[in-house]
Amino acid sequence: MESINIFKGYGKVVNPKNDDHHHQQIPNPNPRTRRLFAISALLLLTLLIGLLIGALIHESTTEPPESPSLDSNSAESVVRAACNVTRYPDSCFASIITAAGLNGSSDPGSVLKVSVEVSVAELSKLTTQLKAMNSGEAALRDCRELVEEALSRLGESERAVADATEAKMKDAQTWIGAAVTDLGTCLEGLEEVGSTALLDEVKVKMNKSKEYTSNALAIVANFHAILDKLHMVPH
Fold first, then answer.
1. Residue 91 lies in a domain
2. Over the stretch 88-118, which tens digit does the pLDDT of each residue have?
3. Care to name a GO molecular-function term for this sequence (predicted)?
4. For residue range 138-153, what is the model confidence (pLDDT) as tens digits?
């Protein structure tokens, strides 16, 4: 008597012939079918990636620029960066960006030189005006001498920044600082005298010259910081 496997067909009677026929109806996919499926999937994936890249490129080309101030190659952005270290950034920017000496240059060294040139030009006009004033005011005479001294110091600093060595830059900073002190002393003397139409006119012009000189001092003193902000290095 043949032995019987009690677990075979438990709960279901299966005809061995039928079972063999059932397995034959589910053939495994052949290698060619698998290759076609893989190629189709790869093509679909490539298409999706291409569409994604195309969308990103379109977005980047149509996106508006962040801000013109981020363009470190423009004269305006360089002057703005330099003037941001000063106490009077608005007058600094207006005086330098329109100066003939700048001529649209975006070189920080040019901005440095022009900041001193603007101070010299403004102080030269003030000196001429003070000399033309026939006044016996002692404070005005003292102020005239101080302005001439400040102008001489600025002339020295103008030559120093043209050289632009480390030692010369320190000298320029000292001379411009002394010029600011001279102008401040002049203004203090005029304030003590009181208010007259003539003195008030001088004070207005003196304050403008002092602002420009103060701006030049700040730019000279912070020149390396300005270069760092613009991601530039001194030559």
1. yes
2. 999 999 999 999 888 888 899 999 999 999 9
3. pectinesterase activity
4. 888 889 999 999 999 9
Q: For the beta carbon of residue 160, count every other beta carbon within 10 angstroms.
A: 22
Phi/psi for 9 (5° steps) reads: 70, 30
Cβ contacts of residue 92 below 8 Å, gap of 6+? Answer: 82, 83, 86, 115, 211, 212, 215, 219
List the CATH number of the domain containing 184.
1.20.140.40
Alpha-carbon span 33 to 233, nearest angstrom: 63
The beta-strand segments (E) located in the chain are none
Q: Please name which of 143, 165, 156 lies closest in space to residue 209, comparing C-alpha atoms.
A: 143
Give the single-character DSSP code of 149: H
For residue 104, give the amino acid letter. G
Residue 235 to residue 232: CA distance in whole angstroms: 9
Q: pLDDT at position 4, please?
A: 39
Which domain does 204 fall in, by range? 74-230
Question: What is the token pair recorded at 150?
Answer: 């400040």
Domain total in the chain: 1
Per-residue b/e over 206-227, b at no fewer than 16 CB within 10 Å? bebbbbbbbbbbbbbbbbeebb
Say if residues 63 and 221 touch (Cβ distance below 8 Å). no
Instruction: Identify the helix (H) or strand (E) that includes residue 142.
Output: helix 138-163
In a domain, 19, yes or no: no
More confident residue, 35 or 220: 220
Please check whether residue 35 lies inside any domain of the structure.
no
Residue 198 resides in a domain: yes
The Cα 200–Cα 184 span in angstroms is 15
